[in-house]
């Protein structure tokens, strides 16, 4: 029986070049990530025109189709089933597939301009540092669904504890919410080895040392180690070292002894280095990250929020936001929530405000208004790519004014942090309105939600006003003449 999700998968496959053009399939929270043999076979305009597609993002490694939370998890297995069933060289375009906006319409021109900007970004992103950041992101992105699920349970549990409700059930909820977080270094180690070409289970094995309770009996320079010391950073370093040790040993051991010698020496050598070096170093680094984040928001909260909220959209464009994923995870391990994510989420609020201003100001531009109407719900839920690549970035100035809205929202949240009202997220992944169930803070989830809502409203208003009065200067008349 065909479902809406299977129909979406059937529509996407020919538009990315058919089964023969698909090398790999994966998904994160919002995007279907495809490895393609030949990207010139992608019919991007038609792909964007599909009702379920919120946008596309192409980086050096994968071609990413934004479908949104939930939808992508249902469409991916349907897509994989089509690849399994379809013969190689299947046709490339379904009959009746939408052809996308006309090239001479405003939406068509903006789509073309967005494609040029993405191509230029891909060229600039092909640096060793950015490639490494993307690989680090690929380690942590698969963990996000569990982080979200456990984060929501933790938030619910905290609310019940604060209200004094259901005292008999809260210990069970604590165990459910905390189990994954207690073992997250193991999953990080597994994914690290997998990403860098090692044996995943060996990566998990050396990372498990970090959380093993028995490390408390190990002393380094006269000081006993603590279980979990170094957290995900220690696990990342241990698994990365283990991968290189494994490869080095495997290249020097006879094949007949490989199955015995390689894993033994990999675990032994890496384990000793982890215990007597990496755990301590990673623990100091993790502590410094937590201290720096708290000091920054306690003493320069408004300014820090202004800078972080204002620069996050450009960071996303450059791919540098991926460097924040281990930092978010470290803060969640230490404090139970990351204080950075709610501030960074304000960038999406500025983007929504800017898009609304474009919609109101360019009221005669029907194609652009249609694009905004279709992308706005996703933007409110924190999926900003359709608005970025379809509206603000191609127009130019609205992207800058969207950043101004994000800066204002970030300053609002940062100001309350200076007053002692820290706002944090118990998980990473969602943004916009979707972040509310994950909010917590120094004075509880209710006040955290109120401050976050105030930041969103500030971002919406400033993004709208800045775009309406400055971001569209010289554009309104020209755009109105395009489509009377």
From TrEMBL:
Gene3D superfamilies: Glucose permease domain IIB. SUPFAM superfamilies: Glucose permease domain IIB. Keywords: Cell membrane, Kinase, Membrane, Phosphotransferase system, Sugar transport, Transferase, Transmembrane, Transmembrane helix, Transport. Residues 134-484 form the PTS EIIC type-1 domain. Residues 6-89 form the PTS EIIB type-1 domain. It is found in: Cell membrane. It is a multi-pass membrane protein. The chain crosses the membrane at residues 139-163, 169-189, 201-220, 257-282, 302-325, 337-360, 399-419, 446-471. PROSITE patterns: PTS_EIIB_TYPE_1, PTS_EIIB_TYPE_1_CYS, PTS_EIIC_TYPE_1. Pfam families: PTS_EIIB, PTS_EIIC. The keyword Zinc does not apply. The active site is at residue 28. This is PTS sugar transporter subunit IIC. It comes from Streptomyces siamensis.
């Amino acid at each position: 029986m065909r479902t809406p999700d299977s129909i979406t998968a059937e529509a996407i496959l020919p538009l990315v070049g058919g089964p023969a053009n698909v090398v790999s399939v994966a998904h994160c929270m919002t995007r279907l990530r495809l490895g393609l043999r030949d990207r010139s076979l992608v019919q991007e305009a038609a792909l964007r025109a599909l009702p379920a597609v919120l946008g596309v993002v192409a980086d050096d490694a994968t071609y990413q189709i934004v479908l949104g939370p939930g939808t992508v998890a249902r469409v991916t297995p349907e897509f994989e089933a089509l690849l399994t069933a379809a013969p190689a060289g299947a046709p490339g375009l379904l009959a009746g597939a939408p052809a996308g906006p006309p090239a001479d319409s405003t939406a068509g021109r903006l789509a073309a301009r967005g494609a040029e900007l993405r191509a230029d970004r891909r060229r600039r992103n092909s640096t060793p540092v950015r490639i490494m950041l993307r690989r680090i992101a690929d380690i942590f992105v698969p963990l996000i669904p569990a982080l979200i699920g456990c984060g929501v349970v933790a938030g619910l549990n905290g609310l019940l504890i604060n209200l004094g409700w259901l005292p008999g059930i809260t210990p069970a909820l604590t165990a459910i919410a905390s189990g994954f977080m207690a073992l997250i270094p193991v999953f990080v180690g597994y994914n690290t080895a997998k990403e860098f070409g090692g044996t995943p289970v060996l990566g998990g094995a050396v990372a498990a040392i970090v959380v093993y309770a028995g490390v408390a009996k190990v002393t380094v320079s006269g000081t006993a180690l603590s279980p979990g010391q170094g957290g995900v950073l220690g696990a990342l370093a241990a698994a990365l070292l283990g991968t290189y040790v494994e490869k080095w040993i495997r290249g020097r051991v006879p094949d007949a002894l490989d199955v015995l010698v390689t894993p033994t020496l990999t675990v032994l050598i890496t384990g000793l280095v982890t215990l007597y070096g990496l755990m301590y170093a990673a623990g100091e680094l993790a502590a410094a990250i937590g201290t720096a984040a708290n000091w920054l928001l306690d003493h320069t909260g408004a300014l820090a929020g202004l800078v972080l909220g204002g620069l996050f959209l450009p960071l996303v464009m450059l791919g540098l936001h991926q460097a924040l994923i281990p930092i978010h995870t470290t803060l969640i391990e230490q404090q139970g929530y990351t204080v950075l994510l709610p501030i960074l989420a304000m960038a999406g609020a500025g983007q929504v405000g800017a898009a609304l201003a474009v919609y109101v100001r360019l009221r005669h531009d029907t194609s652009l208004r249609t694009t905004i109407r279709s992308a706005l719900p996703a933007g409110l839920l924190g999926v900003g790519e359709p608005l970025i690549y379809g509206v603000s970035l191609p127009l130019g100035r609205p992207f800058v004014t969207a950043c101004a809205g994000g800066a204002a929202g970030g300053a609002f949240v940062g100001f309350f942090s200076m007053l002692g009202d820290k706002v944090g997220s118990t998980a990473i992944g969602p943004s916009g309105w979707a972040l509310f169930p994950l909010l917590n803070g120094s004075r509880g989830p209710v006040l955290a939600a109120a401050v976050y809502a105030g930041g969103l409203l500030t971002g919406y208003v400033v993004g709208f006003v800045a775009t309406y009065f400055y971001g569209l200067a010289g554009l309104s008349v020209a755009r109105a003449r395009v489509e009377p």
